[in-house]
Amino acid sequence: MSHNLPSVDGHEREFEFTKEDFERVRQLIYEYAGISLKPSKQHMVYSRLARRLRVNGLDSFNDYLALLESGIRMNGKLSSIRSPLT
Q1: Which of 48, 52, 74, 84 has the fewest CB atoms within 10 Å, i.e. the most exposed one?
Q2: Distance from C-alpha of 4 to C-alpha of 30, rounded to nearest angstrom
Q3: Cα torsion at 30, 34, 35, 36 (round to 10°)?
Q4: What gap in Å lies between CA 42 and CA 26, rounded to an integer?
Q5: Spatial distance between the Cα atoms of 51 and 20, rounded to a whole number of angstroms
Q6: pTM (whole model) above 0.85
């Protein structure tokens, strides 16, 4: 069961961002860069990756993460997520 993570200011978020989405992001970053994100970084991850959803015309983190994962399989790169988070 997925639960939308609350925003910092209590306002509704533009995109649904679940704990499962955040865990997928954490796993991808750890596998690619060896960086272990703490749970306290959820809001930072949301704000940075929400920009990428807008730029790519995507409606969900699930779609964006699937795009990243397919790109990793194709060429082993994760630069679109690594650069803003490191």
Answers
A1: 74
A2: 22
A3: 60
A4: 9
A5: 19
A6: no
